Structures are given as C-alpha cells and as structure tokens.
Amino acid sequence: MHTCFMLLEKTNPEFALTRHCMLHFLELPKINKKNNFASNLERWLTFLKAEGQEEETMKVIMDDDAIFVKAHEEYTSFTRNDRMREIYEAREKALKDAGSGMAKSSGESRALNKA
C-alpha cells in the first residue's frame, strides 16, 4: 500500500544523504478499506480510489472529516465544469498525440529512407 525509499550511501546504508528527500509509492489497487481507517493516509488513498465511484464509502469518509467534504465538492465542481473537462481532455489528447507522434515520425523517416 505505501512504501517509502530514501537516498542512502551505498557502502554505509546507515548514512542517509538527507531525510528530506524521500520517494513514496502509494498503491491504490491494494486499498480495500471501506471504513475503520487506521490513518489519514488510508482515508486519503480510499478517497482517491472511491471518488466518483463508491458513494457509500465516500459517505463514510466525508462523515469523518470536513476536509473530505471540501475535496468532494471540488471534485464534483471540476467534473461538472465543461470548460475544465475540455481543458483536461485536450491536455490528455496532446500528451497521447506527442507520444504517438514520436512513433509516427520514426515511421515516416523509415518510409522516406526507403524511397
């Protein structure tokens, strides 16, 4: 669910470069809680996984803390705002096009080389 890595010296792993630089990996597929959260991290991960999909779970989360009510309102506002959704979808399309454009460019250069 949550794994944290730090920058350590190779031959002396007790020596950390800094305690301020950590890589956190949060695995949403492994979150299966619906209630009785042990920490705020579990609550936030469940919120991210359940938002827009599991209303009962969202109700439990929002009953626990007002910040989740605010986050839910922001999510709802964003998803109902056509302009914001268009901007989001345009960005996603541009990212996909850029990725496929690189593949297309290399394919075009091979075709030109053959000609």
Question: Would you spell out the secondary-structure blueprint of this structure?
Answer:
Blueprint: E1 2-6, E2 22-26, H1 40-50, H2 55-64, H3 66-80, H4 82-114
Antiparallel strand pairs: 1-2
Q: In summary, what is this structure?
A:
With 115 residues, this protein is mostly helical. Helix content is 60%, strand content 9%. The chain has a two-stranded antiparallel sheet with strand order 1-2.
Q: How many alpha or pi helices?
A: 4
Return Rg in Å. 22 Å
This entry's quaternary arrangement is: single chain
Give the low-confidence spans.
Answer: none
Give the strand tally.
2
State the secondary-structure class. mainly alpha
For the terminal residues, how far apart are their CA atoms? 53 Å
Describe the main β-sheet briefly.
2 strands, antiparallel
- Spell the H/E element sequence: EEHHHH
On the 0 to 100 scale, the average pLDDT is 83
- The tally of structural domains comes to 1
Strand content: 5-15%
The coarse silhouette is flat
Helix content: 55-70%
| Main β-sheet, spatial strand arrangement | 1-2
Give a description of the structure.
There is one protein chain. The chain contains four helices and two strands. The chain is mainly alpha-helical. It has one domain. Strands 1-2 form a two-stranded antiparallel sheet. The N and C termini lie far apart (53 Å). The model has no long low-confidence stretch (mean pLDDT 83).
Keywords, separated by commas or semicolons:
115 residues, flat, mainly alpha, 9% strand, 4 helices
